[in-house]
Design brief:
Chain A is built from nine helices and 17 strands. Chain A is of the alpha/beta class. In chain A, a hairpin with a 2-residue loop joins strand 1 and strand 2. Chain B contains 16 helices and 16 strands. The chains are: A alpha/beta, B alpha/beta. The complex binds flavin-adenine dinucleotide (2 copies), iron/sulfur cluster (2 copies) and FE2/S2 (inorganic) cluster (FES). The site of one iron/sulfur cluster (SF4) has 15 residues of chain B, from helix 6 and helix 7.
C-alpha cells in the first residue's frame, strides 16, 4: 500500500499528489513513469514521474481527471492509500548537453516536460520551455518552469493568459526569429506532438516525443502499448516512452487511444452517478 | 487375479458445454471421494523402480505411492507423497499434458484405458485444500544465506519452496501486482481457478518465503544490486513478450496479443466490467490466429465474454495443431470453429481504427520445414475476407528482456533465451535461471522441474561448489 502524503488541486480537474514509494523514488530518472492500481477492482494506469525524493522516499504525480480511474483518484486525500505502484518504468529520457534545448509541452504534458527540462538544464543546456494550456485557469507549473528555464514561453489557446496561440505557432516563431535549436523534447496531446514533429523535421532538429498509449502491465508483456516507429512495432513501455518524433506514426496512436472510448464513457458515467 | 480390474477410466464429471460458455467456472468438476477411489483401484501399483508413469513425469512424482494413499483414504499422506517432489499438485493435476508425460506409458494402457493420473493428483490437492490441510513443514536449521528469486511463475515458485525447505532465506520479486506468473494472468479461470494459485502462494509464505510484488528487476532494482545483497539469484522471468506479424493494419483497435486479451480477462477481471474497471473489446465475431493451448484459451475465453462466433485460424492442418487434445475437444464442444490452411495477410479497419475485416489467403502444404512439419504455401488468388470485431494473436512468445537488456554479462541464444549449463548456471556468476526464460515457451511442469534442479544446484554452489570458468550451454529440448 502506498500512502498519499500531500495533495493539491493545481487547476480544475488537475491534481498533484505526493505518495510514499521509496523503491520507485530510489532509482527514478526523468522521463520514466509508474503504473498504479487504486484498489482490488481497479485498472492499471500509467502516470509519469513529476518529481521524487530518494532520501525521503516519495514521488510526486500530476494527473488530469479524464475517466473513471483518474476521477476516483481525485477523491483520494492525504492518508489514503493506493494499492499498487510499480516503477520506475520505461527508458529514461536521453539527457545530454545538446546546446540549445527546447521543451514543448501541452496541457498535463507539463509535469513530464518538467522532469526532463530540469535534467536538460542540469546537463548544461540553454533551456527554453514552451508550455501551452487551454486557458488561464489551466496554467500549471509556471513558477516551477520559471525557476529552471532560461526562457519560458507560456501560451493559451484562447489568449486569456500571456499570449494567444498554440505551442506550434510559438515554436515556429521562435525558429523564424533565427534561434538555433539543437534538440526538442515534446510531450502533450498527440496531435500537438505530431505537428511539432512536422515543424522540427523541416528544420532537421533532433526531436523526441514522449508517447502515452494505453498500457496494461508496463513491463513488455502484453503489447497494448504498441506503436509504429519507423515502420516497426515497438512497445512504448519498454522501448520508450520516448521515440524519435520524426519516425512515429502519430495518426495510428491517436486512433489507438480511442479504443475504449465507449467503455470509458460508460464507466465514468456509472461512477459519477455513484455506481462504484 | 481375484478381482476384475475395470478397463475403462472412471469419468470425470464436467460442466455442460451449453451452460459453461456463459460462465468462468471450471469445466472439469473433479472426482468425488468414491470416484477417486474407484479410479485409484484400477492402478496396478507398479514397483517404484520400474513404474513408467514416474519416469514420464518431469518431476518424478511417486504416482503408485500417492494412489495407494488414496485407496487408504489418507489425504494428508497422499499430499505428502506428492509434495516430496511436486509442491504444486493442484496446478499440475490440471494443466500438465499428462498424455505425453506420466500417462503416456502407463502399463494399464495395455489392458484398457490408462490411469487418469492428472485427475487423481488434482483430487488430492483439492481435497486437501477443502479440508485446509497443508503438508508438514520440515523444521530445518537456517543456513544464514539469502537467495533472491525473480519472477513468481511455476519455476520461481518451485525454486523458492525448495530453497526455503533447505533453510535458505528466500525473497521472491514479482513485477505484477499478484504472484503466480502465467498461472495467474494467462491460464483462464475455467481451467485453473485462481483460488488454487493463491492457496499455493500461501503455502510458500508459510514456508517463510517473502513475496514482494510490484518490483521489476532491471528497473526497481538492478540485477547487480541483487547480487550485492543476496548470495545467489534465480531468474524465472518466463517468456512473456508476445509476437505479432507485421502485416498491414496490425495495430488496429481490437487486435490483441493473447497475453493482453487473457490478462485483461484473468488478472484484471474485464469479464466483470464495469464492476471491475478494466475494459475489453466486445463484439460478435472474433478470430484467433494460432492453434496451440494459448489459442484455445483465448478462443474459449472469448465465448465466455459474449462473442457469438469464434474462429481458430490456422495455417496448417488439424494434425499439426500443438494444443492438447483435451483443449481442442473442449473448444469444439463449446462451438469454437476451426479454419485450417489459411494465413492472415492484412487487417482492414473502419474510420475509427477498429478492425473490421481479417484478410486471409488459403494455403497448401509443401515440403517439410526444419521442424519436420510440412510448410504451408499460399495459393495465389485465393484471398478472402472474414468480418471480425476482434482478433487475437496466439503465435508465440519470447523472453522478456527488461531484466537483462542492461546486463551484458548475461548471454542469450539467438531466440533470446538465457544460456545456462546443465546446472542452470547462467554466464554470470551466482545467477541461475530456468523455466520459459531458458526454454522458450514450454510447460508448467518443465518450469517446475527446472526450479527444482536449479534449487539443488544453488544449494551446491552455496556449499562451496566452484563456479566454472566457462559455461557449456545445455540443450533442453
Ligand atoms: C507513459 C504514460 C505517462 C502518462 N503520464 C500522465 C501524467 O503524468 N498525467 C496524466 O494526467 N496522464 C498521464 N498519462 C495518461 C493517463 O494514463 C490516462 O489519462 C489515464 O490512464 C486515464 O485513465 P481513466 O480511467 O481516468 O480514464 P479512461 O476512462 O481510461 O479514459 C478517459 C479518456 O482519456 C483518454 N485516455 C485513456 N488512456 C489514455 C492515455 N494513456 N493517454 C492519454 N489519454 C488517454 C481516453 O481516450 C478517454 O478519452 C500517461 C500515459 C502514459 C502511457
Ligand atoms: C495462455 C497460456 C496457457 C498455457 N497453458 C498451459 C497448460 O495448459 N499446461 C502447461 O503445462 N503449460 C501451459 N502454458 C505454459 C506455461 O504457463 C509456462 O510454460 C510456465 O508458466 C512457465 O513458467 P515460468 O516460471 O518460466 O514463467 P512464467 O509463468 O512466465 O512467470 C514469469 C514471471 O516473472 C515475472 N517477471 C518477468 N520479468 C520480471 C522482472 N524483470 N522482474 C520481476 N518479475 C519479472 C513475470 O511478471 C511473471 O509473473 C500456458 C501458457 C500460456 C501463456
Ligand atoms: S506433475 Fe504432471 S506429469 Fe507429473 S504426475 Fe503430476 S500430472 Fe503427471
Ligand atoms: S504405470 Fe499406470 S498402472 Fe503402473 S503404477 Fe503407474 S499409474 Fe499405476
Ligand atoms: S503495457 Fe503491456 S507491453 Fe507495454
Amino acid at each position: 500500500m502506498f500512502e498519499i502524503l500531500a495533495k493539491k488541486e493545481l487547476a480544475p480537474h488537475i491534481k498533484w499528489i505526493r505518495v510514499k514509494a521509496p523503491l520507485v523514488a530510489r532509482t527514478a530518472k526523468p522521463g520514466q513513469f509508474i503504473v498504479l492500481r487504486l484498489h482490488e477492482r481497479g485498472e492499471r494506469i500509467p502516470l509519469t514521474l513529476y518529481k521524487w525524493n530518494k532520501d525521503e522516499g516519495y514521488i510526486e504525480l500530476v494527473f488530469q481527471e479524464v475517466g473513471k480511474t483518474t476521477y476516483e483518484m481525485g477523491t483520494y486525500g492525504v492518508g489514503d492509500k493506493i494499492m499498487d505502484i510499480v516503477g520506475p518504468l520505461g527508458k529514461p529520457t536521453e539527457i545530454e548537453n545538446y546546446g540549445n534545448a527546447v521543451v514543448v509541452s501541452g496541457g498535463v504534458g507539463a509535469p513530464i516536460g518538467y522532469a526532463v527540462a530540469r535534467a536538460l538544464k542540469e546537463a548544461g543546456n540553454h533551456l527554453t520551455v514552451i508550455a501551452g494550456f487551454r486557458s488561464k485557469d489551466y496554467v500549471i507549473l509556471e513558477d516551477e518552469f520559471g525557476k529552471i528555464s532560461d526562457e519560458l514561453l507560456i501560451t493559451t489557446d484562447d489568449g486569456s493568459y500571456k499570449r494567444k496561440g498554440f505551442t506550434t505557432t510559438v515554436l515556429e516563431e521562435y525558429l523564424n526569429q533565427g534561434n538555433k535549436v539543437d534538440f526538442v523534447f515534446t510531450v502533450g496531446p498527440v496531435i500537438m506532438m505530431k505537428l511539432i514533429a512536422e515543424i522540427t523535421r523541416k528544420y532537421e532538429i533532433k526531436t523526441l516525443a514522449s508517447l502515452n498509449p494505453i498500457m496494461v502491465d508496463g513491463t513488455g508483456m502484453c503489447g497494448a502499448c504498441r506503436v509504429t516507429v519507423g515502420g516497426e512495432i515497438k512497445f512504448a513501455c519498454v522501448d520508450g516512452p520516448d521515440f524519435d518524433a520524426h519516425q512515429v506514426d502519430f495518426d495510428e496512436l491517436m486512433l489507438r487511444l480511442k479504443q475504449y472510448n465507449r467503455e470509458e464513457k460508460l464507466a465514468l458515467e456509472r461512477y459519477l452517478k455513484g455506481g462504484a | 487375479m481375484a478381482k476384475q480390474i475395470k478397463k475403462q477410466r472412471i469419468k470425470v464429471p464436467e460442466q455442460d458445454p451449453v451452460a459453461r460458455i456463459h460462465n468462468f467456472n471450471e469445466v472439469a468438476l473433479g472426482y468425488t471421494w468414491d470416484l477417486a477411489v474407484e479410479e485409484a483401484s484400477r492402478c496396478l501399483k507398479c514397483p517404484y523402480s520400474y513404474a513408467p508413469c514416474i519416469k514420464g513425469c518431469p518431476v518424478n512424482v511417486n504416482i503408485p505411492g500417492f494412489i495407494q494413499k488414496i485407496l487408504e483414504r489418507d489425504i494428508k499422506g497422499a499430499l505428502e507423497v506428492i509434495h516430496t517432489t511436486n509442491s504444486l499438485p493442484g496446478i499440475t493435476g490440471r494443466v500438465c499434458p499428462q498424455e505425453e508425460q506420466c500417462e503416456m506409458n502407463c502399463v494399464m494402457g495395455k489392458l484398457g484405458d490408462k490411469i487418469n493420473i492428472g485427475k487423481l493428483e488434482r483430487f488430492v490437492a483439492d481435497e486437501a485444500r477443502k479440508q485446509g490441510i497443508y503438508p508438514d513443514i520440515p523444521q530445518v536449521e537456517k543456513k544464514g544465506k539469502k537467495v533472491a528469486i525473480v519472477g513468481s511463475g511455476p519455476s520461481g515458485l518451485t525454486a523458492a519452496a525448495d530453497l526455503a525447505k533447505m533453510g535458505y532465506d528466500v525473497t521472491m520479486y514479482e513485477a505484477l501486482h499478484e504472484g503466480g506468473g502465467v498461472l495467474i494472468y494467462g491460464i483462464p479461470e475455467f481451467r485453473l481457478p485462481k483460488e488454487i494459485v493463491r492457496y499455493e502462494l500461501k503455502f510458500l509464505k508459510m514456508l517463510g518465503v517473502k513475496i514482494v510484488t510490484n518490483v521489476v528487476i532491471g528497473k526497481t532494482f538492478s540485477l547487480y544490486e541483487l547480487l550485492d545483497e543476496y548470495d545467489a539469484v534465480f531468474l524465472g522471468t518466463g517468456a512473456g513478450t508476445p509476437k505479432f506479424l507485421n502485416l498491414p493494419g496490425v495495430n488496429l483497435n481490437g487486435i490483441y496479443s493473447a497475453n493482453e486479451f487473457l490478462t485483461r480477462i484473468n488478472l484484471m477481471k474485464a469479464y466483470q466490467f464495469p464492476e471491475y474497471d478494466t475494459p475489453i473489446t466486445k463484439g460478435k465475431r472474433l478470430a484467433v490466429i494460432g492453434a496451440g493451448n494459448v489459442a484455445m484459451d483465448a478462443a474459449r475465453s472469448a465465448l465466455r465474454i459474449g462473442y457469438e462466433e469464434v474462429y481458430i485460424v490456422y495455417r496448417r492442418t488439424r494434425e499439426y495443431m500443438t494444443a492438447r487434445e483435451e483443449e481442442i475437444k473442449h473448444a469444439e464442444e463449446e462451438g469454437v470453429k476451426f479454419m485450417f490452411l489459411v494465413s492472415p495477410i492484412e487487417f482492414i479497419g473502419d474510420e475509427n481504427g477498429n478492425v473490421k475485416v481479417l484478410k486471409l489467403i488459403m494455403n497448401e502444404l509443401g515440403e517439410p520445414d526444419s521442424s519436420g512439419r510440412r510448410r504451408p504455401v499460399p495459393i495465389p488468388g485465393t484471398e478472402f475476407g472474414l468480418e471480425v470485431d476482434a482478433v487475437v494473436f496466439a503465435i508465440g512468445q519470447k523472453p522478456n528482456k527488461v531484466l537483462y537488456q542492461e546486463v551484458p554479462e548475461l548471454k542469450t541464444t539467438k531466440w533470446g533465451t538465457l544460456i545456462v549449463d546443465e546446472k542452470y548456471r547462467t554466464t554470470m556468476r551466482g545467477v541461475f535461471a530456468g523455466g520459459d526464460a531458458v526454454r522458450g515457451e514450454a510447460t508448467v511442469v518443465l518450469a517446475m522441474g527446472d526450479g527444482k534442479k536449479a534449487a539443488k544446484a544453488i544449494d551446491e554452489y552455496l556449499n562451496g561448489e566452484p563456479w566454472p570458468e566457462e559455461i557449456k550451454p545445455a540443450n533442453f529440448w
